Amino acid sequence: MKRAPYYLYMMKRYPLTAAGAAIVLLVVLAAVCAPVLAPYDPLALHLPDRLQPPGPAYPLGTDEMGRDILSRVLYGARLSLLAGLGIVGLAAVGGMVIGSVSGFIGGRVELVTMRLMDIMLAFPSLVLALALSAALGPNFRNSIIAVAVVKIPVYVRLVRGLTLSIKERQFVKAARTFGASRAWIISRHILPNCLAPVIVQATLGIGEAILIAAALSFIGLGAQPPAPEWGAMVSMGRTYLLDQWWYATFPGVAIFITVIGFNLFGDGVRDILDPRLRG
Amino acid sequence: MEPLLAISGLCVDFHGYAGVARALDGIDLTIMPGEFLGLVGESGSGKSLTATAILGLLPRGSARIAGGSILFEGEELIGKPEKEYASLRGSKISMVFQEPMNALNPVFKIGRQMSEILRIHRRLPAGEARREAANWLSRVRIPHPERVLDLYPFELSGGMRQRVLLAMALSCGSRLLLADEPTTALDVTIQAQILRLMQETAQSLGTAVLLITHDLGVVAQTCKRVTVMYCGVIVETGPVHEVLHRPGHPYTQALLKALPRLENRQEHLQPITGSVPNLLALPSGCRFHPRCAAAGERCRRSRPKLVAVAAGHLVACWEARING
Amino acid sequence: MAEALLSLRGVVKEFTVRGGRGSSVLRAVNEVSLDIFPGETAGLVGESGCGKSTLAYIIMRLEKMTRGEMFFEGRSLAEMSKAQRRALRPMIQTVFQDPQSSLNPRFRVRQIVEEPLRLNGWTDAEKRRERVLGLLARVGLGPEFMDRFPHELSGGQRQRVAVARALCLNPKLMVLDEPTSALDVSVQAQVLNLLRELQAEFGMAYLFISHNLAVVRYLCDRVMVMYLGRLVEIAPTEELFMRPAHPYTEMLLQSIPSLDRNRPLAAASNDEMPSPLNTPPGCGFHPRCPRAVERCRREVPGLSAVSDGRWAACHLALRE
Q1: B259 touches chain C (CB under 8 A)
Q2: Predicted model pTM
Q3: β-bridge mates for residue B6, sequence order
Q4: Chain C residues contacting B, CB < 8 Å?
Q5: Each residue of C67-84: pLDDT tens digit?
Q6: Which of A122, B26, B303, C107 has a CA that sits 20 to 30 A from residue A4's CA?
Q7: Spatial distance between the Cα atoms of C104 and A185, rounded to a whole number of angstroms
């Protein structure tokens, strides 16, 4: 925490990033403290109070089964964060392994890998995620895996490019003169030096990941009812949109705010880390 | 005769999260028209920063001029509106950098880049601009100038690129050429050619040159006067042969003792003990005193001013003593 | 005559360059033969494009030669088994040019210096720690440097860490690739003095690669000059500087701006070194050579002895 004055200084210089960070923090707090903050159990039914507008008893209203929307939105933050972090985490790790190995070894391995990645990137992410998700079976966990796989090529490309340039740096050459094996060089020299750009890419990708996961749930391929997933809630709320506007609106706003927050924060992270990367 | 450039008391501050660092502290520098002045110093001395300040190109937001004045042809440059400043740059005051690849746009042909400058500063129509450009290329002794105009920067060697930059810098009536380590990235044999070219061309045009470098040998061969900087201040200035053969400041003396000579093999090189201080934690008084063998009580307490020890030879040291 | 530590015979290194109009062959190293003797400091000088870096990489075995032979302590590398060749690695260590990029920015100094040990069978962490502390002390860095990162060190300190790392495995030959070019004058002196002391203490041979002839004069016993992939002159240091035999060496010496000489810069020829892709026929230097004759255009001069311990690749070299 010696770096605290540096971060404070950075926050003042980049107010939008600070705003993004604040939003992210809020969402994380909502997710973590949901049991404390939520007035009701998100799965509890209150059938006599179905489709109530926002009021003193139910601050954000209720859905068609009488479940409190506020509580569901708060708990939904957990699912969305899990999706966002899970997806970029898996994609980043997969991408780092594939990218560094193919970039370092080169030759045919690299050629085949990169063409495969090109093919994957040729498909729109949502379509590919849809297909994979359907193939794996419609549930929350599978939707995360599906989107992660679809996002891997982005990280493979990034890490392979980094590997190609890091491989030429003198400290890698030095390691070869002490007799380092390829595995040693990749794991100790190349991957740690890829971390910063990968983290930046991942932070920028969280927003989109959350959106795609929500979209899958919206279609019914992700989280299954009665899970309080925002996308699923928006989907259910569509039917009631005209008269019970609160049902679809609040989860939708939650998605919107969360994604903006992560995007603003991610943009700033790239700018802040960049000059420091150059020492 | 009026000085072409007169800097007095220039102070530049850098603002960072860890505090304010005074990178230039009270710089006084004068350049007469047509003069060839060398500005030497090691890394962190502030020599490049001085050139950037003259051009008004300090990074906005982190660097700020905290005092002093820069007079060019009698006009104050500090605080000049950007539009006026921009018309000065590239025409009356121009610059040549260490890495020509960074100064040339890789996606435009040489001819286009040179013509652009001529059209902006001298308002020449396109056809004439191209002819002038070819003219200038042959002036810097580039063979087949017409062909070179149609080449991209990457198709030229380092030495050629530097000649192009030189041509660009001088083509619009430059009165003052700032050259920041112009030959450091070049091979030795090319370096000699470029330095000689700079000398001759500047002389024929009457352009003054401020040659910024860390290489004392280069200064010895090309400059009439030299100014030595250390840690943001000027420690010595005077005629080249005076300063290099009879240095007055302990830093200059130490620098010369640490330099391996081409002429004869030395028995022993004398390194300067210690290291350059962090700008945020400057020593009190004279900035060099912690590393100085001759440091006295006064050196710790107050910063010495530049004082004449011989005609035109000034040294900023309380214990100044001329060594042979 | 002492047996050579490292010998190269007829080493050639070619690169295929894919240009816009098909590929061409770039001969970075062209029939180089040299010897490095135990305990000596041999300098290798030349300008960019002369092939000295490629040659250095071949010696460090980071690049494979296209043809030629390399011998270490009399044994040919081609005749060794893979394991024997691997065992050679600790004997030849390197200090690279850029202290910023030769140290992994994410490693602490401790990890940087102990890496060669870890890769060569030093499994005991405590023993490694001791050795690292000892090496750091030997290069003038106290134990407080163990946990620092490269970005917290100055250029000179980084270069010392690189030297400590190169000393780790007690090499017999240290290749120093422009080790002080990126350093300030005052720091350069410290590192050069350190290198001298270490050699006196450990007795290893140095191959000192540089374009700075003043530094070469200070440090080296013998100097080898390269031009366009060939060795054009080999001589003991003082003789090279006082009586250069090859016209290129002469041109090099005259081009260097110096403090002491009171003459204007040499009116050096206006040409540049030709691209290694397009080597002139015959002697590579003849287009720029003030003394070139017809023979120079036709025949490539080989390195021939000019006097005892001196060789020059020039048809017109002075012979004693």
Answers
A1: yes
A2: 0.83
A3: B30, B71
A4: 47-48, 154-156, 184-190, 192-193, 211-215, 217-218, 237-238, 241, 251-262, 264-268, 270, 272-273
A5: 999 999 989 988 888 888
A6: C107
A7: 11
